[in-house]
From TrEMBL:
Transmembrane segments: 12-30, 299-319
Protein name: Ca-activated chloride channel family protein
PROSITE patterns tied to this protein: VWFA
Pfam entry (one): VWA_2
Alphabetically ordered keywords of this record: Cell membrane, Membrane, Transmembrane, Transmembrane helix
InterPro entries: Aerotolerance_reg_N, UPF0353/GerABKA_families, VWF_A, vWFA_dom_sf
Domain (VWFA): residue spans on this chain: 92-282
């Protein structure tokens, strides 16, 4: 499989591809000239008995394979790179859980918050033991419930202590998550940098307090921290506040925007089972980072295969295989 390149280390070499249409044009012109010369002979059956009849499709196929070889080898010459996921040797995962009053909705049994706490605890338990885990509560006043720690059991217990609070400050929660990352053990080679890691944010509603989410996202992008967002709940969710039924649908548009801006991933979960599946995917994705990987050898390999097939086609024409 040839991976589509995301760029080239020496893009100037791609100008060699301009030779391909020149070669195609020359092939078409020479083929027409040959056909015109062939029309001078009226007794073509006698010619065929002397020199044999060449297979047109085989000749065209050999030329096409040669051109494919030139294209792939030229791409290889330009040293293509493709994005790949590279495992992080050490990582900090900040689990942000919405605890606003809307999380008391029972469209997900026994309630959104209780189901989310169970799923988050299971997610933390699946992370590699060397990963640091931090838990941040998302409300009108986001807080670091537990700073980064490799004691995943303690982090899981911290999740279970979460209680409903008023308002939803998504932007402030992102900044709080960044603060949590800054508390992780630093890399000795880069003591001033933020530890590699990711933010995993679950929210069931729209921003109602604090700074605008996208304003906080700019800080997350600057820190190069991927954010995985989960729009949680159903359109039919509601809570009773002072005897008034209030609908509390999730806000997938905002969650998607945050994930895309930070090169993360966006998910939707409308049930406890959905949420477990989402966390299983996030457990794999959050421990990696996107890197440019050179794929020159792959393109060179396919170029050599095309060249070998073209050579076989030329040989078959030369020895007049049936």
């Amino acid at each position: 499989m040839i991976f589509p390149p995301s760029g080239f280390e020496v893009p100037s070499r791609l100008f060699l591809l301009l030779l391909i249409p020149v070669i195609v044009a020359a092939y078409v012109v020479l083929s027409r000239m040959k056909n015109r010369r062939g029309m001078r002979y009226t007794n073509t059956s006698m010619l065929e008995s002397v020199i044999g009849r060449q297979s047109q499709w085989r000749r065209h196929l050999a030329v096409a394979l040669s051109l494919l070889s030139l294209v792939t080898l030229t791409l290889a010459f330009a040293r293509p790179v493709a994005q790949a996921d590279e495992p992080l040797p050490r990582s900090t995962i900040v689990v942000v859980i919405d605890v606003s009053l809307s999380m008391e909705a029972t469209d997900i049994e026994p309630s959104r918050l209780e189901a989310a706490k169970v799923a988050a605890r299971e997610f933390i338990e699946t992370l590699p033991p060397e990963y640091n885990v931090s838990v941040v509560s998302l409300s009108g006043a986001p807080a670091i419930v537990i700073p980064p720690t490799t004691d995943h059991a303690a982090a899981g217990r911290a999740v279970l202590t979460l209680q409903p609070q008023e308002s939803t400050a998504i932007g402030e929660a992102l900044i709080t998550a960044l603060r949590a990352l800054q508390q992780a053990p630093q890399d000795p080679d880069d003591p001033d940098g933020i530890a590699p890691g990711a933010i995993v944010m679950l929210s069931d509603g729209e921003n109602t307090a604090g700074r605008a989410p996208m304003q906080a996202v700019s800080d997350v992008v600057e820190a190069e921290i991927r954010t995985f967002t989960i729009a949680y709940g159903t359109e039919n969710g509601y809570v009773d506040l002072d005897g008034v039924r209030e609908p509390v649908p999730p806000d997938p548009a905002m969650m998607r925007q945050i994930a895309e801006a930070t090169d993360g991933a966006f998910y939707e979960a409308e049930s406890a089972d959905d949420l477990r599946e989402v966390y299983a995917d996030v457990a794999v994705e959050s421990g990696t980072r996107k890197v440019d990987q050179q794929v020159t050898s792959q393109y060179a390999g396919f170029g050599l295969v095309f060249a070998a097939l073209a050579a076989l086609g030329a040989i078959s024409l030369g020895v007049r295989w049936p």
